[in-house]
Structure formats: structure tokens, C-alpha cells
Design brief:
72% helix
Amino acid sequence: MSVITSLKWKILFLGYCGVILYVSSLSSKELPEGPKIFSDKILHLCEYGLFGILAWGAFVVRKGVFPWGLVALGAWFGIMDECWQDWIGKSRSADVWDAAADAVGSFLGVLVAQLFWIKR
């Protein structure tokens, strides 16, 4: 991966982290009302799935080695995100199941990225 491409991935990754924190800073009244056909845990899975994919692109990973560090980064960021929501208040609170969904989403995102890039 070229330096320019790597830098683009890092900018995307850091920007996405900022978006996650921004949305987490909104009160529950400021959040858009989504369809109630599925649990918010699905949203967490998707949100952190994208986090895992962008983390994969942002950091160089050796071929043949599963990047557990990136999964740990996603789990850590998810926990910190939940703590952030609890700390700022605004009718939001930390939820251990949201953090668990974040960790699983991060794992799935990294796994998808690894499978995609191995085939290339």
C-alpha cells in the first residue's frame, strides 16, 4: 500500500471515529427515529463493522496473521464510547450490551476486510 493510500485510510478512520463520538454526544431526542423492526444492537454491529474495515485499511497488517489488536482497538473504543455517553449525560447511558455488540461488530468488520484483501 502506498503512503498516500495509507494516509487516506488513516484520515477516513480518524474521521469516522470523530463521527462516532459526535453522534454519541447527541441526546436521545436529537437522534433520528429509526424503524423499530430491529434492535439497536444491529446498528452497533454495523457501526463497528465499518470501524473494523476502516481500521484494517488504516493500519498495516502482516499477511497470514489475524489482527487481534484491531479487534481489541474496536472493543476498547466501543467501551470508551459507552463511557462517554454516560459521562456527558443528555439522557444517554452506558450499556454493556451495546459495548458487546461494538466488539462483535469490530471483529466482523476486521474479518470481512481480511477475507476481502486476502483474495485480492
